[in-house]
Amino acid sequence: MKETINGLSVFLEGSSKNKSIIFVHGFPYDRTMWKAQIDELSEKYFCVAYDIRGLGESPAGDGQFTMESFVDDLEIIIGELKLDKPVICGLSMGGYISLRAIERMQGKFSAAVLCDTRSEADNNEGKLKRAAAIKRINTEGLIPFAKDFVTNCFGDPYKRNNKEDFEKRIAKSSSFDPVGVKGSLLAMMGRNDTTEYLSKIKIPSLFICGEFDALTPPSVMMPLAEKVIGAEFVVIKNSGHMSPIENPKEVNEAIKKFLDRL
Ligand code: MLT
Fold first, then answer.
1. pLDDT by residue (tens digit) across 90-132?
2. Distance from the CA of 26 to the center of ligand 1, in angstroms?
3. pTM for the structure as a whole
4. What SS3 class is residue 219?
5. Using CA atoms, how far apart are residues 132 and 129, in angstroms rounded to an integer?
6. Virtual CA dihedral for 2, 176, 88, 204, nearest 10 degrees?
7. Alpha carbon of 257 to those of 41, 202, 232: distances in Å?
8. Which residues surround ligand 1 with Cβ inside 6 Å?
9. Which of 4, 41, 140, 197 has a CA between 20 and 30 Å from the CA of residue 224?
C-alpha cells in the first residue's frame, strides 16, 4: 500500500499489528533497494519504506535539504503512522539519517540495523568531492555522475553476474530529479558527526557491511560497531556497498537472527 505523508511517498507491507521496521535507503537510490528484505520480513513485521525527499517518487521541491530536515521527515512519518518504537534500518545515507535520528530521539526506536555506513561527517576532501559532483551534474547532467557513482557502489561479483539488473539500477538513478540528487549531496556535505553519540546508544544494534564495500569498508565499520555497547557486526560475503541488494540471503539471515533475539 502506498501513502503520501508530508509530501513523501511511503510504502507499507505486512500487518500493522506486527512490530514495525522503517527502512531508510541510500544515495542515489530509492526504497526499492529494500525489496528483498521487505518481501521476506513483511511476513512477520510491518515494513515501512519511503523515498527520501528528492529521490525516487518523492518530489524534490527546491532541493534545499539538510540532514536535520531528512530526520524531520522520518519523525513525521513515524508520528503519522503511529509506529510504536519501530526498528530503524538504514543504509549509507540512510544510516547517516538513522544515526542522527537515534541521537535526536533514541527513545522512539526499539533497535537499529545499520548497513554500510559511517558516523563521521565529511572531511575537507569529502566536501570537495560533493562540490565537484554538484558541479559535474550542473555541467554534464545527472547521467554520467549517476553511472560512475552507482558503478562504484556495487562489488565486482554482482556487476559480473547481474548485468541486466545493474544496468537497470544505473538507469533508475539517472532518471531522478537532479535537483533532488544535488539536495542530498548538500545535506550529506553539511551533516554533523555522530561518532560521539555511539557510546550512548542503548538500543540493540546490528551493523552490516559488504566485504568488498569500497565506500564504507569493514575497516571503517568495525570500529564504528565497537563503539556501540553490545552491538553485533556482520560482514556480508561477495558484496560491495549495496549489501541488501548484492547478497540479500546473508543480509536477511543476519537481520532475522537479530530481530528474533529482541
Ligand atoms: C550512499 O550509499 O548513501 C552514499 O554512498 C553515501 C555517501 O555518498 O556518503
1. 999 999 999 999 999 999 999 999 999 999 999 999 999 999 9
2. 6
3. 0.98
4. helix
5. 5
6. 150
7. 11, 19, 11
8. 26-27, 92-93, 153, 188, 215, 241
9. 41
